[in-house]
Write a structure and sequence with these properties.
- With about 375 residues, this protein is an alpha+beta fold.
- The protein has helices spanning about 15-35, 40-65, 75-85, 90-110, 150-165, 175-185, 190-195, 195-205, 205-250, 330-340, 355-360; strands at about 10-15, 125, 255-260, 260-265, 270-275, 285, 290-295, 300, 305-310, 310-315, 320-325, 340-345, 350.
- Among the domains are: about 5-125, no CATH class; about 255-369, no CATH class.
- The strands form three sheets. A seven-stranded antiparallel β-sheet has the order 3-4-5-11-10-6-7. Strands 9-8-12-13 form a four-stranded antiparallel β-sheet, covered by helices on one side. Strands 1-2 form a two-stranded antiparallel ribbon.
- Helix 1 runs parallel beside helix 3 (about 75-85).
- Keywords: Membrane, Transmembrane, Transmembrane helix.
- This is DUF805 domain-containing protein.
Length: about 375
């Protein structure tokens, strides 16, 4: 393929060539996404591929004699798809854009060719096609024996073949364009053959517009890069905040295990009595706020007749039972556990033998004794 034809402004593209260029552009974008991920560099890549796709659509419309501004329609899904890849939008949106791309490509590819060019060069016809050079066609000089050398004969055959094909290369194309293309191929260099001069002339006449477009693209890439950097920096911070808040929310517990099979816990001055119960569904057993539930759990009774009302009694996921008391009763309950003989709660009787020694092993309970 003559790659300069991708940037040609005056040539013609058939439907198959346009479809292949469109598919290649989006394939390159997807490949860049696989290699770079959600990177602002994809916007730069999309900006570099946009002229290739836009000019191919423009040449396709010239081939179909359609409105030139239709070519700009193919750039809309390209921009949306690039932005979707960079900012990690939903997969459904990316698939929807690809469906639109396929529909656009089919529409452009199926447009009938009005030029009716008999010979496309890889789906393209225009000034960027390098015709067969006649430089190697040397003049055949007569020899004494009337013989012609093999090399000269081959060159003459090539010249005849080129002369036979040349008049039909761009048949049905306007004579003015044909004359310009042939002049471009034979007299002008590489840059003229790919129609770079019209672009240079346009850029000189529209310098302000060109600078504005470049500035907008640069600003877009800069904003995308800053957004990506800020998002990446905020992720560790948010994770740290969540971890810190989880540590703050989850209070620490201090435990003293009483020999008769229950434990006394302190959780931010809230006293909890915990023991293993029967298998039951997790949930509330008794609540002082609603006075609903198992009334055997309505009070913690000591053998001397004193009692305290738990705020909440509930089954835990590990089949244990926890009874929470008011912080106002914490000191009195710990003192009674250390000094009394037994307690009764929720139908369970526990001996307090060795409780004072168990509480003294944890320094947190010593101030309450």
């Amino acid at each position: 393929m003559q790659y300069q034809s991708l940037f040609c402004f005056k040539g013609l593209d058939n439907g198959v060539r346009f479809a292949l260029i469109s598919a290649s552009v989006y394939f390159i974008l997807l490949l860049g996404f696989v290699l770079l991920g959600h990177s602002a560099a994809l916007l730069v890549l999309g900006c570099l591929l946009a002229p290739v796709l836009g000019l191919s659509a423009y040449r396709r419309m010239r081939d179909a004699a359609g409105p030139s501004w239709y070519a700009s329609l193919v750039l809309i899904p390209l921009c949306l798809f690039s932005i979707t890849l960079v900012y990690g939008a939903s997969l459904a949106l990316a698939v929807a854009i690809l469906v639109i791309v396929v529909l656009f490509s089919l529409f452009f590819a199926r447009l009938p060719s009005v030029a009716k060019v008999k010979s496309y060069h890889q789906g393209y016809v225009g000034p960027a096609v390098t015709p067969r050079s006649s430089v190697n066609c040397r003049r055949v000089e007569p020899s004494l024996g009337g013989h012609v050398s093999v090399a000269d004969a081959d060159a003459d055959a090539d010249a005849d073949e080129y002369d036979a094909e040349a008049p039909h290369a761009y048949e049905s194309v306007s004579e003015e364009d044909n004359h310009q293309w042939q002049a471009s191929s034979s007299q002008q260099g590489f840059f003229d053959s790919m129609a770079l001069r019209p672009w240079t002339h346009w850029a000189k006449q529209n310098q302000k517009l060109l600078l504005a477009v470049v500035a907008c693209l640069g600003a877009l890439v800069l904003i995308a890069g800053l957004f990506e950097a800020l998002t990446a920096d905020n992720e560790p911070i948010s994770e740290l905040v969540q971890a810190t808040s989880a540590q703050v929310i989850a209070p620490s517990r201090e435990e003293a295990k009483i020999p008769d099979g229950f434990s006394v816990l302190l959780e931010n001055d809230v006293l909890i009595i915990r023991w293993l119960g029967e298998k039951a569904a997790e949930g509330e057993i008794w609540s002082l706020a609603s006075a609903q539930g198992d009334r055997s759990c309505a009070k913690l009774s000591f053998n001397d007749g004193s009692y305290y009302r738990p705020m909440l009694v509930e089954y835990m996921p590990d089949t244990s039972i926890e009874a929470r008391f008011s912080p106002l009763d914490t000191r009195a309950i710990i003192s009674d556990i250390a000094m009394r003989g037994s307690i009764k709660l929720c139908g369970y009787d526990f001996s307090l033998k060795g409780s004072q020694s168990a509480l003294s092993k944890n320094a947190v309970f010593i101030p309450y004794l």
